[in-house]
Design goal:
Length: 202
């Protein structure tokens, strides 16, 4: 009987100490980070799936600037060639490459949309306009998913660095996770200046 009481008491003390040291919080936040990251990947995949249809529609405009189209195709190929696994958030170098590739694709798509304004046939093409609306909606979803991921990672990283949970992090091997930065994306996404007074290239 005494042994059973002592075992129960030990289990209670262990559970209390694990709660106090942040172990349970690490488990909860780690799952939240995984969920937020999965949603980011889901929205990036949604965008990648839209691009072939956009490219096919734009190709119907014979005089469209091929260089702009080629950059979108190449950027998509580069972005989709990176294996986006859940473990990517724990690999700083791989995460930076993934972010850079997605940033390049964002910039290439932005330029494509700006240049397409010069072509009356594309502006009048309902299929292209529908795809454009879908792309804008997807970009908004990407922003929402990224913001959720950033906030979740921020909570996780604060736990990793705060006392006494940082002791648990050291013992259990929990390290800060990578998050998105906007340092280069603003420059990458900047669309080129377009002079609408000039005729489209033939």
């Amino acid at each position: 009987m005494l042994r059973r009481v002592l075992t129960l008491l030990s289990a209670l003390i262990l559970a209390t100490s694990l709660t106090a040291c942040g172990y349970n919080d690490f488990q909860r936040l780690d799952e939240e980070v995984k969920g937020a990251w999965a949603e980011v990947l889901n929205q990036y995949q949604r965008r990648a799936d839209l691009i072939p249809n956009i490219v096919a529609t734009v190709k119907g405009e014979a005089s469209f600037e091929q260089d702009t189209l080629t950059k979108v195709i190449e950027a998509r190929a580069k972005a989709t060639s990176i294996q986006a696994t859940p473990e990517l958030v724990n690999d700083p170098e791989a995460f930076k490459k993934f972010q850079a590739a997605q940033g390049e694709l964002t910039g290439a798509l932005s330029r494509l949309m700006v240049v397409s304004e010069q072509y009356p046939n594309l502006k009048a093409n309902q299929a292209f306009q529908d795809l454009r609306v879908q792309l804008e909606g997807t970009e908004n979803r990407i922003t929402v998913a990224r913001n959720r991921y950033i906030k979740t990672v921020q909570s996780y990283n604060v736990l990793v660095r705060s006392f006494p949970s940082n002791l648990t992090a050291m013992v259990m091997g929990y390290k800060p996770k990578e998050t998105f930065t906007v340092q280069n994306e603003a420059q990458i996404s900047q669309p080129p200046a377009v002079n609408f007074d000039q005729p489209a290239k033939k």
